[in-house]
Amino acid sequence: MSTAAVETARPIQVQNLAKRFGSLIALDGVSLELAPGECLGLLGPNGAGKSTLIRAVVGRVRPDSGSIRIFGAEASTRAARQALGWVPQELAIYPRLTCRENLLAFGKYQGLSGASLTEQAAWCLKWAALEDRANDPAGKLSGGMKRRLNMAAGIIHRPRLVLMDEPTVGVDPQSRNRIFEMIEALRADGMALLYTTHHMEEAERLCDRIAIVDHGKIIAEGTRDELVSNAFGTRTEVVAQFAGDPARIEEWVRQRGGKIVAGAAQFSIDRPTEITPLLAAATDQGLEVDDVSLRRPNLESVFLHLTGRELRD
Amino acid sequence: MIFAIVRTAITAMRRDRASLALSFVLPVAFFSIFAMVFGKSHDAIPQVHVIVVDEDHSAASRKLLRGLMREGSLVVSTRPDSKDSNQPEYTTSTAEAAVRTGKVPVALVIPAGWGAHPIAFQGDQASGSEIELLSDQSDPIAPQIVGGLLQKAAMTSMPSSMASEGGKYMQQYLGGLTPEQEKRWNSNLANLNDREARRDAEPLMPADAKQKSSSDSGAGFGNGFIQVKSRSLIGEHQNKNQISFYAAGMGVMFLLFTASGAAGSLLDEQDSGTLDRILSSHVTMTTLLAGKLTFNTLLAFTQLVVMFLWGWAVFHLDFFQHIPGFIVMGLCTAFAVASFGMLLASICRTRAQLGALSTLLIMIMSSVGGSMFPRFLMPEAVQKAGLFTINAWAIDGFTKVFWRDMPVRALGPQVGVLLATGLVLFLVARRIARRWEMA
Fold first, then answer.
1. Site from B276, B279, B280 to mutate, A interface, most A CB atoms within 10 angstroms
2. Residues 6+ apart with CB under 8 A from B192
3. Residue span of the structural domain in which B398 resides
4. For residue B351, what are the contacts with CB-CB under 8 A and spacing of at least 6?
5. Is the pLDDT of residue B205 over 70?
6. Is B240 a residue whose pLDDT tops 70?
7. Does residue B26 lie in a domain region?
8. Set of chain A residues whose Cβ sits within 8 Å of the Cβ of B288
9. Highest mean pLDDT among A278-292, B165-179, B254-268, B388-402
């Protein structure tokens, strides 16, 4: 493939990707594309197949069928490896090496050398806000700092496409915000991102489009608004807490077309005015309303709607 | 609470079945190895190879030679290839060369004229000739065995000569015999001659049969009627010691441990996810393994340097006189042990498995290969088994360098075997490491 062709090709083109580990179907005909500079979120519960998809793209899992192209080049080729960076879910860094030594090592593995390697390491330390800890062993950093170093090691060669596999796992809210800022800085630089998470807030904040993954399949794809709209139209959710016999409450909620989620009754209504007759019906049944709120459906609602399960199941 | 802790520990141990199995196999294997090496040593005394140079070619020297050949504990050679009777016999100089190069630990030279006066009492200068015992002090036991068996062979294989010579001494020191005594003496000498002639006519028995018969015969012929002049060919003129043996033997054993431990970094990297990250970059599995192999080789070589320098500083090992040979042997040994470590790391799934398997194999290799005690003390079969270990070839090579002062070109067999072993082990490790390449 010519350089020009590579330049104009899409960062990722995945077609009908399938992978099975024994009897477990990890990927079941996954297809997706990513536009230049775009951030696509892979949203799904643990075990949905997100990490397997990412590992297939970086060449660490051999698909049973299907194809993967990175900027037009086949996955695992030198051109593909050069174009993409990977931030694995594990803290894949050398704990006894300092932050700078880690970055220099992974930079060399990515083919950097000399001044460009030094410059890139310095840039990564700054990007990850680890300049003042550059000479500290990675093993002595806080959890959030290790995560940031882990991310920096994945982009030391300034790839045009970055795959991030749940980069905020196990970090506190403050560190998570710092990580979000780092990712937004990459996006401002024009990097394309494939970002896996099971936190809908992360997907909503960072991603242009979201693909919902479950049981190895992409069951819905689009912008946040498109996903919500496709699942719920213009409908609104009513969330109500009732006091009384749980069995009786559940039976009544079902009769009215709602469902019990985390101990609260949820109903979908077309217009806010429908809330008054709903509450009146509850009172008629002798149910005491403790609390009621109105909210627009979110990605969690979409996932629940599509799979019948909560995202964190 | 204690029960819960015990149950958790048992469950965790059961999950790593290979490690669990090895923890039971390990003591059984060690027990078996040591039982094999030491337990059988009473039944199968290691045979000593000895060259006999007969410059006398007298009846007495031939009888002595046959007597030595009858000894089950000796493997006697009179020419380089004992099956080829047309080959010239050993001379003093070729026998010396054979001892110097470590082909045999001992050679006996029966000088011309020895048969005229085969026995002599201590301090008797008149008897003239002495049998020369040439030895290599790297095996301090072999000269003792040969010296003792030489006395025994003389007494059992040529009693008439002994008696005849004894009679002469008796006449010299005690005066003459009466006619009656002389008649009986001559009659008994004739009987002895007859018995010797009958036995000499019998064919020599094979080695294993010899061994059985010799175990019944008495010992204790060390106090010499035969005059023996010992000469150490190696270590005679230099202040040599056994330090190089220990440095090489212990060095190789610990190198093996270090190499397998260092190669275990692959398992650590697998656990941490670093291996995945490396392999997703431009680094291939072959490059990664080659890098680890290079590091482990340099680490092992550095260990050897430190050990030999310590030997030089503290135990007066003549290190700096043998630098070229040391570098060649050190690098080849380091390469072989590093490859061995890589193979173990690629086979094992966990650090626990690696620890158990490496301990098992290294202790077996070290005991059979001569790191723990000299191979010449082991039964023949175990000595041959030792040739399948890195230890044996490394120790042989270092012995050539430090003990025999042999030039680098003489290290060919050891260098060849160690390099070939290293290469084969590395290629097998690379093959097994395919499991890490892609799921």
1. B280
2. B159, B160, B163
3. 240-437
4. B264, B267, B268
5. no
6. no
7. no
8. none
9. B388-402
